[in-house]
Amino acid sequence: MKFQIVERLVASGVVAVVRAQDENTAAAIADACAQGGIQAIEITLTVPGALRVIDGLSRKMAGQLIIGAGTVLDPETARAAMLSGAQFIVSPALNTETARLCHRYQIPYLPGCGTVSEIIQALEAGADLIKVFPGETLGPAFVKAVLGPLPQAPLMPTGGVSIDNAAEWIRAGSVALGAGSSLTAGAARGDFGSITTLAKQYLERIKEARAERSAERSGGKA
User: 109-113 and 89-91 as β-strands: parallel, antiparallel, unpaired?
Assistant: First the structure.
């Protein structure tokens, strides 16, 4: 189950990071992302009523979306999120107790890391994907540099990811991307259609970049 979820997160290409002022907006953003083809949604616990949103979406979108909890700082909160239906747990930084809890219940854990030392510690703690954070200060070059000595590290940048640089992140070696406000900004003006459109564009650019990277690694042409 755990490995299947990780495979789906990577296959999805984009984890939509949902931050909103209320439950209804968060649910509407998730729905708009799903209509655009995104399969993984991270509901951050900064959203008022976040656990209710996770519970509602995990029931409504069962089989269609993978629903996770973000901004999880401790194992107690992680367990509450799991009981609400969260299928993966995301943290801004590594918490080893949260990592152990997630492994106990076979739930993927994605801790935030911003240095090589942190990435190694997260790998040793059993992290399933490494959230490169904050992406806007690290950049795609960081991912490429890390994968030199640590080619086994499954890196997923979050923060600073946009439709303009999505392909660059993938070509650098990222296995997936976490997209927040650059994807969901339309919600602030009630334009959920723009989220669906952007979701489709993200997936297309990631698909193209993956093909380019695959061709480059095999020595062929895209």
Answer: parallel
Give the DSSP letter string of 103-137: HHTT--EEEEE-SHHHHHHHHHTT-SSEEE-SHHH
Q: What is the DSSP letter of 36?
A: T
- Given this model, what pLDDT does residue 220 score? 52
What strands lie across the sheet with 130-132, from one edge to the other?
155-157, 130-132, 109-113, 89-91, 66-70, 40-44, 14-18, 177-179
Residue of 7, 23, 124, 131 marked active site = 131
Find, among 142, 181, 214, the residue nearest to 131 by Cα.
Answer: 142
For residue 59, list its beta bridge partners: none
Structural contact between residues 84 and 54, judged by C-beta atoms closer than 8 angstroms: yes
- Is 144 among the catalytic positions? no
**Catalytically annotated residue among 42, 60, 168, 200:** 42
CATH architecture of 2-218: Alpha-Beta Barrel (3.20)
CA 38 – CA 137 distance, rounded (Å): 25
Is this prediction's pTM over 0.85? Answer: yes
CB burial readout 97-122, b (16+ within 10 A) else e: ebbebbbeeebbbbbbbbeeebbbbb
Write the single-letter amino acid at 37. G
Query: With 50 as the cut, is the pLDDT of residue 128 above it?
Result: yes
Owner of token pair 């995301």: 90
